[in-house]
Each structure stands twice: as C-alpha cells, then as structure tokens.
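Task card 7
Instruction: Convert sequence to structure tokens.
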Amino acid sequence: MSSSLDHDHDLEKTEAQQPTMFDRIFRDSAGNIVIVQPPNLPILVGVAATLLQWVSPDGNLQLGLQLVAFGVLFTWAWQELFEGVNYFRRSLGLLGLVGLVALGLRLGGL
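Output:
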C-alpha cells in the first residue's frame, strides 16, 4: 500500500516539474524571466554602423558601413535564433533574420 502512495507522490512531483508554456517562452535555464538583455557587441556595432551611414557621404565608405551593419546584425539574429536563452529570444532572432533578408532584397543591395 505504501509503494502505491510513493508512486502517486512521485508522479505528482514529475507533473509539478514540467515547465509551462510561459516558462518555455520567457524563462532561461536558471528560471529567470528574460525579455531584455544588455546589448551585446554585434548589436552595438550594428547600430553604430547604421547611424554612421546616415551621416557619411555616398560612396565606398557608406557601402562599407552598410555591409558591416548588415553582417553584424545578421550575426546577432543568427545567434539569437540558435542560441537564444528562451523561445522569446529565439523568436526575436527569427524576426530579425527575416527582416534583414527582406530589407536587403527590397533595397536591392545585399
């Protein structure tokens, strides 16, 4: 009789440990809710290169900045998509990747 109670108690523990959809979307492996993180190097370089494009003259410098901005933002999106800490961060990576490709195709540049 005791073994069936232990089995039921173990089953309840297992069910209680199953992560909810909220947990899968917004929590990292340590259980912290992660929506916004401090910017990493690709985001900082990408934003700086994008801003510098607006003030640089047309020509090779602007093209170089455009390539740098696209490359590092693509890298950030790729990293988030495959190494994001939760589904929300991975979704941001997917949206960023699709947006960059669509923008590149629309502009006819990259």
